[in-house]
Design brief:
By secondary structure, the chain is mainly alpha-helical. The chain has 14 helices and six strands. The strands form two sheets. It has a three-stranded antiparallel beta sheet, with helices on one face. The model has no long low-confidence stretch (mean pLDDT 87).
Length: 357
């Protein structure tokens, strides 16, 4: 009998054989007539796949969800959630993934580029939809044959802040700054003042630790040892922990925040949870400071560049930044080479002077 009850389940199950294969599927209903409709659909799908060679269909949204679920627990999982949202803002989530075309991927690239997204971000999003397609194929779904558009990642000069640029940025983030459109500090809404203070403090910590935004945004007070000026930083992207030592500036920021501590997180959202990726006000501060080509990640480059320029090796900087692979840190190698060649010049200068004496 094609419809059966199984175990303690209250639902009807479809059970039949086709070409030597046994198919079993829950109808998710206790209504017999509704179950018969599910049965008919299941048989039609099995016949199309097994006899006619047609594969199952899956929507773009479901394919992305399945791919996302397969990555749960990995360092990239949180970023994949954001990429899925960005993809579904362009691609039709309800349409079958088999109907996607190269033109759809081209349009996504163009739209995200027009929105000012970094080439690396766009490339990651396209990699995700291609990963979802490959995952759907492994699970027996019909997929399209696509070639994603090329996204050129610019090389060129590594962008980091000079000391003067840092001062300009912090001036634009100062919670007590005077500006058109801002009420005097003592008349501002407390929530507005707290948001401004959060942004200022966050940027100072990023500058002086070189940590990733997500690492500081999710930092909890039990990871902070103020008396010893230590931060135990969990790096979810590479799944390792680093011990960072605070600068005086960071120590002062954390001491001030401790006085008004309201929960477990150093930076909390309105519900008391960890701060999300909220950088609109920070981007505006970059623009007001004339740093239009900078992002929050520029602060990490700034920290690393300063370490290299002041005598640390790329291997030492790798440990500070928490890179899993030295190849990632090698982007700063040219700065180390410049430091070495300047020291070489000083050696030759000293030798030249001693030969003239």
């Amino acid at each position: 009998m094609p419809l059966v009850k199984r175990g303690n389940s209250r639902f009807w199950y479809v059970q039949f054989q086709l070409n030597g294969r046994t198919f079993v599927r829950s109808t998710r209903t206790t209504d017999r007539k509704a179950a018969e409709k599910v049965e008919a659909q299941a048989k039609a799908e099995a016949y199309s796949e097994g006899v006619l060679g047609k594969k199952k269909q899956i929507t773009v949204s479901d394919a992305l969800l399945r791919f996302l679920a397969s990555k749960e627990g990995t360092p990239s999982y949180r970023n994949l959630i954001r990429r899925k949202k960005a993809l579904l803002a362009t691609l039709s989530g309800s349409g079958p993934i088999s109907s996607l075309t190269n033109g759809d991927l081209d349009r996504h690239k163009q739209r995200r580029t027009q929105q000012g997204r970094a080439p690396q971000t766009v490339k990651h999003e396209l990699n995700m939809i291609m990963g979802a397609i490959r995952y759907a194929k492994r699970n027996g779904f019909e997929i399209p044959d696509l070639t994603p558009p090329t996204v050129r990642i610019p090389g060129g000069k590594l962008r980091y802040l000079s000391s003067e640029e840092e001062r300009r940025l912090l001036r634009e983030l100062d919670p007590n700054r005077v500006s058109n459109g801002l009420a005097p500090a003592d008349e501002r809404d407390p929530k507005k003042m707290q948001d401004m203070q959060d942004n200022y403090d966050l940027i100072v910590i990023l500058l002086d630790t070189g940590a990733r935004y997500s690492e500081i945004a999710t930092l909890t007070w039990d990871q902070i040892d103020l008396p010893n000026r230590e931060i135990r930083l969990w790096r979810s992207k590479v799944e390792n922990e680093s011990l960072l030592f605070m600068t005086t500036r960071v120590t002062n920021v954390l001491a001030n925040r401790l006085e008004s501590r309201a929960g477990k997180f150093l930076f909390s959202n309105s519900k008391g949870g960890a701060r999300r990726y909220s950088v609109i006000a920070i981007r505006k501060a970059f623009d007001r400071a004339g740093l239009h080509d900078c992002t929050v990640h520029t602060l990490r480059h700034t920290h690393a560049s300063r370490l290299i320029q002041n005598g640390m090796s790329v291997y030492e900087v790798k440990a500070v930044l928490g890179h899993a692979d030295i190849r990632t840190t090698m982007r700063y190698a040219h700065l180390e080479e410049a430091k070495v060649t300047s020291r070489a010049r000083d050696v030759i200068e000293a030798l030249s002077r001693s030969s003239l004496d």
